[in-house]
Amino acid sequence: MSKKYYPAAVKQPIKQLQMIDITKQFPGVLANDHVNLEVRAGEILALLGENGAGKSTLMKQLYGLYQPDSGRILINGKECHFSSPTDVIHAGIGMIHQHFMLVSNLTVRENVALGLKSSRQPFLDLNIVEKKMMEICDTYNLKLNPRAYIWQLSVGEQQRVEIVKTLYRGADLLILDEPTAVLTPQEVDEFFQILRKMAQEKHLIIFISHKLHEVLAISDRVTILRDGRSVGQRENKNLTKAELAQMMVGRPVVLQYERAAPSVGDVKLKIEDVWVRNDWGEDQVKGVSLEIRSGEILGLAGVSGNGQRELAEALAGLRKCSKGRIIIDSIEMTKASPYERILAGQSYIPEERNKEGIIREFDIMENFILEDHDKIPYSKHWILNFSNIAAATQKAVDDFSVKTPTLSTKVKNLSGGNVQKLILARELNRNPKILIAAQPTRGVDIGATEYIHRRLLKQRSEGTATLLISEDLDEIRALSDRIAVIFEGRIIGIVDGPTATAEKLGLMMAGVQEEEQK
Ligand SMILES: Nc1ncnc2c1ncn2[C@@H]1O[C@H](COP(=O)(O)OP(=O)(O)OP(=O)(O)O)[C@@H](O)[C@H]1O
């Protein structure tokens, strides 16, 4: 029987959270198997694990979205049962999701006020909200203009609004799910200062991340899940990336790659003065020109929202170009459909994998042969060959370590990182001449990232021309032969990949040209 935790009026500050022996079973998957986790006031706990290890499932039980099959959740030593996120918010727990839940045409203070109730007056006084909000901002050094509209803010500022919203509602414990995925290196530094300040103010923080250097930089302790079980609780003292990776994956992971010098050939993809509009009809890509040769990886670095998505969608044929030309293998394909581009040898790994890359109600095999179902070996004379489909899908699932109970599991039941691995497996399986890869390892664990990077380098050595769009500077620097930086829809510079530093790229991503940095 679920009962509510203490009402807001008598809420006690959280000093300790314990999750003890938590078990959660889904059909065919034991997502959490007697998992233990503890975090105390003033502490930053990193929760690590491969894709599908059970991190989100564990946090969803803490946040009242799922009920554990067995096990206990204790706050300050007292057992509690949460039946909804409202109970959880009242208890002082807040969650900052990867995708912000803000209304873009409202102001910052209006967003903070959304859903709040006034205790005395019929209407909430926005000036009172603003005053309290600014007190929170001062305490945690959060720089925000309360009257600015959300659409005017950078991604980092929007994240600050989410943090203020959560603190405003009295959260002592904050769950942060891959919070740095969308930030520039400079924004990550600022964000870490905010986290440290929150820890100093005796908040409890659970930080989920696949980026090991960040985990080492920010956490006090690390809890590691593997295959649904807790395999380690370690103080962050003398820990190394290699140890963490080994604990997560269960084998040593190579974190640096040898890259042969590129052996470039003809231009495979030519982008000539391309202009693309966003969903509101404004120019978002403003005259981009790039050339990518066979055997070359061109990295496109930039803070999200600077035109990368629109450019990638235009290249995939999902969005019209308002001006300019796209030439694939010397043939103009500016107006070609997505399918015509696939036939021309182009593969596309989309950034929004749940919207563009996959049909969530279809199973793994069906998704694996999407767009290729009418081709040999999957079908002949319009008759599907199920054993060939199953064999090819099984190989891809094994190669990319897609964690799934069966090949006929619906994709909506896979963890986020496993969906991404499946799309990559499908797109690389075509052996493309041109690959547009948008954020290929975002949300993907270290073991799979290693595999994906090796596959991208293998494709490169086999002559694929790759446009690698990524906000992860380590990834861009590790893989790219040249790096173009996009800022406000324009390419502000192209630099040599192997010698580019994170600082130089970070500044260019903030709009400072290479010459101005000297
Ligand atoms: N609603 C569901 N129905 C069936 N299976 C599920 C459901 N939610 C999660 N699973 C399965 O439970 C396992 C754990 O998934 P979970 O999302 O917790 O992993 P994760 O560690 O958060 O992974 P990622 O890093 O990819 O986000 C996976 O095998 C997943 O396929």
From TrEMBL:
Membrane topology designation: Peripheral membrane protein
One cellular component (GO) term of this entry: plasma membrane
Matching SMART domains: AAA
GO molecular function annotation: ATP binding; ATP hydrolysis activity
Pfam families xrefs: ABC_tran
Organism of this sequence: Flexilinea flocculi
Subcellular location: Cell membrane
Domain called ABC transporter: residue spans: 17-252, 269-513
PANTHER family per record: CARBOHYDRATE TRANSPORT ATP-BINDING PROTEIN MG119-RELATED, GALACTOFURANOSE TRANSPORTER ATP-BINDING PROTEIN YTFR
Protein name: Nucleoside ABC transporter ATP-binding protein
Gene3D superfamilies the UniProt entry points to: P-loop containing nucleotide triphosphate hydrolases
Statement: the UniProt record of this protein carries the keyword Metal-binding: no
First-listed, main subcellular location of the protein, grouped into a coarse class: membrane
CDD domains in the cross-refs: ABC_Carb_Monos_I, ABC_Carb_Monos_II
PROSITE patterns membership: ABC_TRANSPORTER_1, ABC_TRANSPORTER_2
Keywords annotated in UniProt: ATP-binding, Cell membrane, Membrane, Nucleotide-binding, Repeat, Translocase, Transport
The keyword Phosphoprotein is annotated on this UniProt entry: no
